[in-house]
Amino acid sequence: CVDPLDTEEILLQIGTWYRKLHKWEQSIESLHQLSCLSSTRPHGTMLSQANEATAQTYLEQYCTDTTLDIDQRTEILCNATTHSNKVDEVSTERHLTQAQLFYFNGDKQQAYNHLELYLDARLAECKITCYTCNQRVRHGSVPFSCASCKVASYCGRKHQKMTWKNERVCHKVLCPLLGYWRMAKKKQKKQKRLTNVDRHECGRVFDTFFESICPHMKLCGGIPSYTMID
Questions:
Q1: Which residues of the chain have a pLDDT value below 70?
Q2: Are strands 144-145 and 153-154 parallel, antiparallel or unpaired?
Q3: Which one, of 143, 141, 139, 140, lies nearest residue 152 by Cα?
């Protein structure tokens, strides 16, 4: 016999690993079992996590499965949005998920807002927690930081390699965006406000990022390199 809480953890891990293997149906089935189990328990605590994980699986399938036709892709995006809307918790990674869903659903302004919240949170976590394992850096120690974006910090080089190119929205994709946002916030603090040129540039950079993480959209030549306008 397995404790129900342990079973929930196992089902979440199974669903996550199936997603990483691009086995969409198996991932959804495991997460559906998790939702059913958690919803029947008086103090079930993982229903929100099940919905978040299910939304992420549908989102990954939407962005990476090249065999889908337009109707299937529309249905999958609708499923991802429905499950995401059932999540009450607010987290850094959830802002990134929401940003993608709003963008692919055609609401650029909301997508930009959530992406800004995600990037602000990443800047706030700079040199405080490890980008890979989320463990807090010991007081007085010098974190191992990404030399490119100067935002992501790690326990060491091993953890840096683990998240460099491990999934679709990996640090290889986010690195130039984080570096751009760090400079944009620095410039905004100096100027006290954003000019129209800055806002236009920000929109262009965000569009390029969203296009780079979804092969079904018009790509801009691989991983982009962003620069701030002086």
A1: 1-2, 4, 42-44, 137-143, 192-197, 217-230
A2: antiparallel
A3: 143
Q: How far apart are CA 194 and CA 214, in angstroms?
A: 29
Any residues with CB less than 8 A from the CB of 35 and at least 6 apart, and which?
Answer: 47, 50, 51, 54
Give strand pairing partners of 129. 136
CA-CA distance, 90 to 183, in Å (whole number)?
Answer: 26
Q: Is the dihedral of CA 124, 90, 83, 207 positive or negative?
A: negative
Q: 151 with 126: CB under 8 angstroms?
A: yes
Q: Which two tokens stand for residue 133?
A: 């394992």
pTM of the entire structure?
A: 0.85
> Structure tokens of 31?
């997460």
Q: What is the pLDDT of residues 111-152, one digit of tens each?
A: 999 999 999 999 988 777 888 887 876 655 556 788 888 888
Q: Which helix (H) or strand (E) holds 154?
A: strand 153-154
Token output for 61? 């399938």
Cα end-to-end span (Å), the chain: 64
Whole-Å CA distances, 170 to 120, 132, 173, 191: 18, 11, 6, 32
